[in-house]
Amino acid sequence: MADARPYLFDFDPLLSEDERLTWKAARDFCEKTVRPKVAESYEAGTFPRDLVPAFAQMGFLGGPLEGYGCPGQDPVSYGLTMLELERQDSGFRSFCSVQTALAMWPIHAYGSEEQKARYLPDMAAGRLIGCFGLTEPNAGSDPGSMRTHARQDGPGGDFILNGQKMWITNSPIADLCIVWARTQMHGETTPEIRGFIVDRDTKGLSTPEIHGKLSLRASITGEIVLDDARVPKENLLPGVRGLKGPLSCLTQARYGIGWGVVGAAMACYERARSYALERTQFGKPLAAFQLTQQKLVDMHDAVVQGFLLALTFGREKAAGRLGPLHVSMLKRNNVHMARKVAAEARTILGGNGIMLEFDVMRHMCNLETVYTYEGTHEVHTLAIGRKITGISAFS
Hints:
Helices cover 50% and strands 13% of the residues. The chain is an alpha+beta fold. The chain has 3 domains: 12-124, Acyl-CoA dehydrogenase/oxidase, N-terminal domain (Butyryl-Coa Dehydrogenase, subunit A, domain 1), CATH 1.10.540.10; 130-241, Beta Barrel (Butyryl-CoA Dehydrogenase, subunit A, domain 2), CATH 2.40.110; 245-389, Butyryl-CoA Dehydrogenase, subunit A, domain 3, CATH 1.20.140.10. Strands 1, 2, 3, 4, 5, 6 and 7 form a 7-stranded mixed beta sheet that branches. Strands 8-9 form a two-stranded antiparallel sheet. Strand 2 (149-152) and strand 3 form a beta hairpin. The termini are far apart.
């Protein structure tokens, strides 16, 4: 038998020493600490909150942010941690991604100095959990049509928020919610979308959990319901107005997704490869059949290409050249890739492929959600299509 290794491409020479050390530390931690909790959490539909302090200690919360107790990672190192989390399960990566990119990042980017000092150190340490309220029951891919609204109660007064947000990761366990609302400032005639920090103890706030999910079961998902919720004026994010606020947060989160799903694809490909080498049918390993080798080669090449795309875009992000449409490319391409790799891996495992202990079907189910959240595949397609043709197909 020829000398065999899972990847023809050696990724390590492309990374700095710090990036390699970060990747190894993240992988070792996830294998030792996260892996034992994955299957039980997924089957039970629960998130192990006892992992949060360990995530914080590893620098997984607020990874790329500077100051306020945040690790200040470079974009590639941050991406590699997302890869290793999602190699275990998309739900664990989602927790850290939402905490970092959707809850901490808007405070860091658009918050007042008082807000940053009040919230970010405790969020980086895992003492406060955040969530991000943008999607609504009737406004998923079209956030501009949101109905959640806020009005200022008199000049210089507090804000009264009403509305409902849907499919909100972490909301049932969150200590604070970043809520985006169509806001009527006192004395202004035209409402604008503004962001608010809504604390858990706010009267009129509730966050019911969504049950019955067949995907992302190791992630807690819920709603944000605002019923005349009075939010202090000090909790308005002062640094941004309009859709730029929530959309820029999503750009940060999508970057992490583009890395994370490479980990899910790696897990599926590597499981299928090892299974094909060990499983004997008709007197020889599955890996000896031509069709199986074609599947493995297709998966291998797709995973390598996805990693290289993420790495290239990570370098561009570090150089300040990565724009929102580049991130759309990364999210769209790599999630599509991972979804196909998971489905192909399932065929190699046959009946065992649907069993929890073999991982692949769990990744398949998770990736169905990742395929549509934080921008559906179709919306990213049309956004990129508009840019390269100059023609909008949205309407």
